[in-house]
Design brief:
single chain, 650 residues, alpha+beta, Beta-galactosidase, Chain A, domain 5, Glycosyltransferase, 2 domains, eight-stranded antiparallel beta sheet, seven-stranded antiparallel beta sheet, 16 helices, elongated
Length: 650
Amino acid sequence: MTNGLGGYACGTIAGANTRRYHAFLMASLAPPVARTLLVAKVDVGVDYLGCHTELGANEFEDGTIAPEGFKHLQSFMVLDGLPTWIFAVGDALLLQQIFMAAGANTSYLRLELLRASAPLSLRLRPFVGYRDYHLQSRGAAPVAVESSARGCRLQWAAAAPAGTAPGGATSYRLIMSRGAFHPEPQMYWNFRHREEAARGLDAAEDLYTPGVFSAELTPGSPVFLVASAEASAPLAGELVLAALHARHKESAAALPPSAPAWIRELAYAAGQFIVQRRPAGAPANGQADTSIIAGYPWFADWGRDTMIALPGVATALKRYDITAGVLRTYARFVDGGMIPNRFPDSGEKPEYNTADATLWMFHALDDYLTARPDPPLQTELFPILIGIIRAHQAGTRFGIRVDPADGLLHSGEPGTQLTWMDAKQGDTAFTPRVGKAVEINALWLNALDVAVRLAGRLGEDSEQSFCQSLLARAADGFGRFWNERRSCLFDVLDTEDGENDARIRPNQILAVSLPYCALSRAQMRAVVDTCSRQLLTSYGLRSLSPAEPGYVGRYEGNPWQRDGAYHMGTVWSWLLGPFARAHYRVYGDARLAVSFLNPIAQHLDSACMGHVSEIFDGDAPHAARGCFAQAWSVGEILRAWLYLERHTSH
């Protein structure tokens, strides 16, 4: 569950936190960054008909799992976008839901007795902290706990997370809608996060509990436990719930009646990546920019991911104001002909270390203007776009420049990682692609084509002629990518050692899926066929063919091992969208192309409920890995389905 600020609530169905990123309230104190764990979890216990039953679960460092409340779990479902548990205790049924308020660092736990032959007593124990979401807490306790009849306020001595306003830690409160709070302060030691252990990271954490909340439940009278870092009083749980139900219904409004349940799930998921970007210290009701979170739980808003995801998470669902807002946000940060690749978590200056993010912006704008003509926006952005083209033609950061010999775009310098295949540890770049990368040049052709068409609409004859000449030269030069021996495209031309990289990678599929394509019909089909045979899986395309030297079939181990596998065989789900569109382009069978997307329907129930994971193992059974909710994965699959669905009816 997300709040539109970068904050979130997430956990496991069983109730035990298995990641450092799991939290009942992970607040974003400088939206959409400075994410800070405030409440790790809330364990629920009940007294019913003379028996006490714990419904929570925890795993500890010594292997102990206690309690084992999942044994009482009758069912779990995502109901209108809300995670919903139903526990059976004797003849009683207890419903539990977790959600967040939009635009606020506030989480809600809702408990309702659905059936019982006698009143049921609740005992809720929150486990709290105050730490950066990438870290673990050991032995930390608040400096002050102010108790009241139905809750408490916690103050920590920790300094404000980087990127937030100075002045010490943000206080937060826990309050029950009815019932009582009983101070019982104590420390719980050595929780184990098994997923962190599997990632080769420290896996232990200590958590503080300020006490216990109690309330009596009878059928038809729910109770809410609220955790909030906001200065103002939190909204009543029922009001937030009603707003969430309305938002869930609205998320599918732009979908055709034929949309299956899994596409409706993706439409709702898409909205969870849209966030506000506020300057540090800005008031909550002040002016905010719009951006896209790249992925939960650990990514912030990245330029590349934003521009790839934007057509699917916003434009395709007719969230036109969101699209325009995001484009304006990034256009304001253009520097040296580039948009930022990353806004750091710690509030430093944006990082401009990407060769493709800026070019993806042209594609996102063109997709938007095709869906909804917006003369004011195109007039506003056109001078910026031409400035970008000229900066690339003349040369900008990191060796990004047009080679006058063939009109192609060169990018990169030794030790840099400028394409989306950007894994790096220290000075080691695992997939160096310095030279003329195939997808960078496919994007360059499309950016020039967009600029030519915009210049024509605006009567900018000289700029149109300038861009046309660049496009003609680059389109002719793009023929150099054709690898006659392997009947596909080289991945990188003119590499650091002067050779052409002939390894089979999925980047070539973008040369066919993007609107402007310089390849012949036969070449386009050969590219699609090569990707089908060597890269395609049910959940995306492998980043390297298993037949190539250096292929790694499993994304696992410590950070070094995982980064080494990241683009050396690991499956990327976002590429499923471009593949399906490219397949339709060359074969003309929309139903067949849709079939490549359909396995995602089963995946939505197997990792993060209702979301698409960032990556999967290259080897079967293709276990889900990486971020468990990824914006471009959701966006590209959703956009491809909507595009193909329009063509299945013709």
